[in-house]
Specification:
- With 203 residues, this protein is mostly helical.
- The protein has one domain: Cytochrome c oxidase, subunit III, four-helix bundle (Four Helix Bundle (Hemerythrin (Met), subunit A)).
- It contains six helices and no strands.
- The chain has helices spanning 2-11, 28-57, 71-96, 100-127, 136-167, 177-202.
- Helix 3 packs antiparallel against helix 6.
- The chain starts with a helix and ends with a helix.
Length: 203
């Protein structure tokens, strides 16, 4: 009788909503980053739609007459950013294998390469010779490259935080989500730039 009373009390002990469903195999941090990336792809898609409308739909020359895009400089900058993706992968692989030197060297190098890319991009703006309001083409150029530059800046802030934590010994082979999630974002930034460079500068 006493056991039945205890069981009956236990059944009514929980109040409020039921526990959250944690059956998903995707961790919350990773899922949040993937959803964020999907939303950002949509944002870039809107600007690419405007780009193709001007260039393909209206048949306007690209770039606008009298202007020139620094294809070679942007190509070097592309190589810098692609290299940063490789060093990011090095950092991610290193911490999974317990290589703390590889983690610190990889993260720091990634941050420096990303900062170099952003510096070259700003210097390109300062010397390109046209402004966003000159032509519709220039508006789209600044919009696409500027949107990507904003994402690089956000990525650098994340990398700075990861770099500081790495040098303080906060990551282990078992607990490295703080490196993996920003790394996914950084790879996304790199892939988006390859698309931007190919369409805006090369094609």
């Amino acid at each position: 009788m006493e056991a039945a009373s205890v069981a009956h009390a236990a059944e009514h002990e929980h109040h409020g909503p039921p526990p959250a469903n944690v059956s998903s195999r995707v961790e919350p941090q990773l899922l949040g980053m993937l959803l964020f990336i999907i939303s950002e792809v949509m944002v870039f898609g809107a600007f690419f739609t405007a780009y193709f409308f001007i260039r393909v739909g209206q048949g306007d020359p690209w770039p606008a007459p009298g202007t020139e895009l620094p294809v070679a400089v942007a190509g070097v900058n592309t190589a810098i950013l692609v290299s940063s993706s490789l060093t990011m992968h090095w950092a991610q692989t290193s911490i999974k294998n317990g290589n703390r030197f590889g983690l610190k060297a990889g993260i720091l190098t990634t941050f420096l390469l990303g900062a170099t890319f952003l510096f070259v991009q700003i210097n390109e703006y300062a010397n390109i010779g046209f402004a966003p309001q000159n032509h519709a083409q220039q508006t789209i150029f600044y919009s696409l490259t500027g949107l990507h530059g904003a994402h690089v800046f956000i990525g650098l802030m994340l990398l700075l935080f990861v770099t500081i934590r790495s040098f303080r010994g906060h990551y282990t082979p078992q607990e490295h989500r703080g490196v993996e999630v920003p790394g996914i974002y950084w790879h996304f930034v790199d892939v988006m730039w390859i698309i931007v460079y190919s369409t805006v500068y090369v094609l």
